[in-house]
Description:
The protein is α+β, with helices and mostly antiparallel strands. The chain is built from six helices and nine strands, in the order ββββββαβαααααββ.
Amino acid sequence: xxxxxxLPGAVAVxxxxxxxxxxxxGLRGGTPHLHLTCSEGYVxxxxxxxxxxxxxxGFRQTPLTAGSLxxxxxxxxxxxxxxxxxxxxxxxxxxxxxxxxxAVLTLPPRCLTDTDTYRAAAALPADAAExxxxxxxxxxxxxxVEGFLALRRATEAGDPEPLAAFHRAAAALVKHRxxxxxxxxxxxxxxxxxxxxxxxxxLAQGDSGHLALACVHAEQPSAxxxxxxxxxxxxxxx
Length: 238
């Protein structure tokens, strides 16, 4: 009998305090980006702000206040705006893959030409002191906002090509990682789905054996206030 012991449906969670650094358009907030294989959700637990999204359907701004629940599918460019101490519990598909590689920042096209160029612009210095990490996080955030605003302007002007070009570049940048991502999916969401199927089969036959395998798990964050794409993160499970 198979029992999946991860979080329900192999989601992952983190606690996010959205950056309050100002940007070139006068707003405060995080780094615009998209995910290529993962949906993501926000449960707002404090403060106020909004999430700006950009898809082939256009630009949208969704208000966020305590109690708001918002989620979006792969390919949605999203940018968090912090009006007043915005804090969010982030729900991530595929065992936290959005924080483990499935994200491409909306950097300008000059930074998307190949993996080395992208990595140089997007990576944070892992072993640097906090002030240096903050400086690097702000630089990459500002680059991503520059790219996002250009994509928004083009989309709103009726020109779909810049957004399509960004989608192509994003897919090319992550192509070499898909085997690793597949392994995470197979051990997470796919395994959870298989376990449910087997349990349904057992119950249909009157077999309750899997109930004897019940267990309880509890965790505290494994790291606090890490510099993330959208803000400072408390993360679970490494």
